[in-house]
Fold this protein.
Amino acid sequence: MGRRLQNVAIGSLIAFLIVALNLTYWSVIERDRLRTRADNPRRIEAERATVRGRILDRNSVVLARSEPSGRMLSGAVAQRRVYPHESAFSVTGYYSLVYGSSGAEFAFEDALRGTARSDAWSAALDELLNRPLRGDDLRLTVDVQLQVVAAQAFGEHRGAAVLLEVPSGAVRLLYSTPIYDPNTLDADWERLRNDPSAPLLNRALQGTYQLGGALQLIIYAAMLANPAGQPHTFASAALPLSLDALTVRCAVEPSAPIKGLEDALAYGCPRLFAEFALEYPAQVQEKIAAFGLLSVSPLDGYPVAAERRVTPLNELTAPTDRLRAGVGQGDLTVTPLQMALVASGIANYGNLVTPYIADALRAPDSETWQPVSRLSIERAAMTREAAERMRAALRESVLSGSAQAALTSDLPPEATLYAHASLAFSGNTQHGWLIGFVALPDGRALALATVVESVEDVHIAARIGGRLLASAAQRALQD
């Protein structure tokens, strides 16, 4: 009997040790992995209870907020994310327990959840007391009123627009269409994911487009830096350029004979610029790099387009390939943000600005906004003299060239418009660019890139871009 009791005791002790070791393993060694597993009910409940911070525009209009949506089985209050402004969906992105996040929700995840300022002691105490996380409010630099104007201006057209304040680099407008509704994302996910129009793609930051005639701006800068390579005759400037099955013409028919490079740029005539790229590819490639078109432009952690390998212009040996690249129909593609930076360089007399969209953060129960730290660096893309000549050509484009449709009656009289409108071929369709800026009397400028998909003529992009610049100038003069 005593021996059997001894065996039972030993067996019980062994079983206890196994249980203790198992508990130690799961509660200590595997604790963090268990907590972060997607199917962990406690993690899911904690996420649903998290009060994410609000997202506001520059005038404190709420673009995203968390609202109570009932109680869970544990008694904790579940939260749901609400996005009240349709025109700002391109800015806020979405937040979903199932599908993750995008836009500002992704870029500022830690701040909006409250984990960015939480130390280990506070996190442990919150977990012990079962207190939900509370995130910081985030104030952005965008103006929701400009987002509304963009939605109205684009209408049924697809495309994107980015507008930067110069020289600060603040993003005042970030718009992409078609849009989706983040309020119903979970229910709509499969439909959105399979939609051929790709509404989940933020075209302003992730959409990549052929440059087409917009490349003339870059080549013109290269020509200004190499006077010896500039043409001496302009008789053929307005003639179409044929490349296999592709024929490229002036963006608009010149109303008078072309007498110089500024005229050729103003009317968007490609021949002289393509011929320069054929003869001086290294100089053009140098300017392409200087304007930042070979690297993806970051924006405060927002998801952006993936890096792509592009064959340098000077490595293209076939004349037809080099001419095709010289009219912006090669393998170089760009995002609207990159082209907005090109506009900023012209507006800023040769120096590209550093874009940013996060303005300040505010902790829960605090009335004090803390500015988001940033490093602002201007990059020289061309000389001031070249930028002034570029500005003159863009002004001529507005007055009598490709961008005439951008000049609207809504533009304040104290603001001056500079712009260039162009077309690019994309498969069996073409899209239009409006690259330009308005100069304000206080020395600031507002630089814009607008791309409109599937257009018949250059005036559509010019009208949409012109409306955006006029509205932005009105808003800026009210500041």
